[in-house]
């Protein structure tokens, strides 16, 4: 399962980087494959693993922010592993091959 999410602290001012860093730190310490870009963080694992990471990341932000917004999207495909890199590699190969 791939789980992509964005966690936004509300009520803390315009600069939210330090709060987002708290969430990303939780994700990286989880040991699950993950990737963070400008909009989302994606983790790969079982339903239970990915949801536990999401909750822990939200909890980390909520510990310092009065309100938290979460946007998430999941790709649930039992039996598939390494989807995070395989999906991108498949597209890159098609781009190379024309």
From TrEMBL:
Listed Gene3D superfamilies: 3.30.70.930
Superkingdom of this protein's organism: Bacteria
Pfam families, sorted: Thiamine_BP (PF01910)
InterPro entries, alphabetized: MTH1187/YkoF-like (IPR029756), Thiamine_BP (IPR002767), UPF0045_domain (IPR051614)
Residue ranges of every copy of the Thiamine-binding protein domain listed in the record: 4-92
Family indicated by similarity: Belongs to the UPF0045 family.
The protein, known as: MTH1187 family thiamine-binding protein
Source organism of this protein record: Luedemannella helvata
């Amino acid at each position: 399962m791939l789980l992509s999410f964005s966690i936004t602290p509300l009520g803390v001012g315009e600069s939210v980087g330090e709060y987002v860093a708290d969430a990303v730190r939780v994700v990286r310490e989880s040991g699950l494959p993950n990737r963070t870009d400008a909009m989302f963080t994606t983790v790969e694992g079982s339903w239970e693993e990915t949801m536990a990471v999401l909750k822990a990341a939200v909890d980390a932000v909520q510990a310092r922010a009065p309100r938290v917004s979460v946007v998430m999207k999941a790709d649930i495909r039992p039996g598939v592993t390494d989807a995070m890199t395989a999906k991108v590699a498949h597209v890159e190969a098609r781009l190379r091959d024309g």
